[in-house]
Amino acid sequence: MQSLQQKASEWSGVDPSDAFAIDNTNLFEKLGLQTFINLSTNFYNRVYDDDVEWFRSIFANSKKEDAIRNQYEFFVQRMGGPPLYSQRRGHPALIGRHRPFPVTHQAAERWLHHMEQALESITDIDTDSKTKMMNFFRFFFFFFSSTGVI
């Protein structure tokens, strides 16, 4: 039987060692808080302006400002910074927090599309950091998928 990580790797095309390469560099120290705020703001502007209604509807019950803050605080915490997310919201428990949303493989691909576009638009993020972050995001979404959330 395949482990969840093996399934995530197979489905995402990302080796676990590449997915967790974000742990080998403190991206928070390297990029700074404002870069994560800019990334999350750019990402959610894209999401809330998406011309695909079914995708936008996933976020319909969330305030954009709250979504931005939740995301950048989680990213900061996960990528080497202070535990901003946990201090405000408790343990991330991402699988449980995302369970109520109608997330599918198609939605994951759409999310990843917007994140890749947002990463490309932020000039303060170097190519190596962008690659590490996208590998983590791809693997993470397909890990979600292998748990049955997606």
Compact overview of the structure:
The protein is mostly helical. The chain contains 10 helices and no strands.
Structure description:
With 150 residues, the protein is mainly alpha-helical. The protein contains ten helices and no strands. The longest helix has 21 residues, at 127-147. It is globular and about 35 Å long.
Elements, N to C (H/E): HHHHHHHHHH
* Individual helix count: 10
Biggest sheet statistics: none
What structural class results from the helix and strand content? mainly alpha
User: How would you sum up the global shape?
Assistant: globular
Helix content: 55-70%
Q: What is the count of β-strands?
A: 0
Q: Quote the distance from N terminus to C terminus.
A: 20 Å
Portion in beta strands: under 5%
Query: Using only CA atoms, what is the Rg?
Result: 15 Å
Average pLDDT for all residues: 84
Point out poorly predicted stretches. Answer: none
SSE blueprint and pairings:
Blueprint: H1 4-12, H2 16-19, H3 27-31, H4 33-48, H5 53-58, H6 64-78, H7 84-89, H8 94-98, H9 105-121, H10 127-147
Task: Name some characteristics of this structure.
single chain; 150 residues; mainly alpha; 10 helices; 69% helix; 0% strand; globular
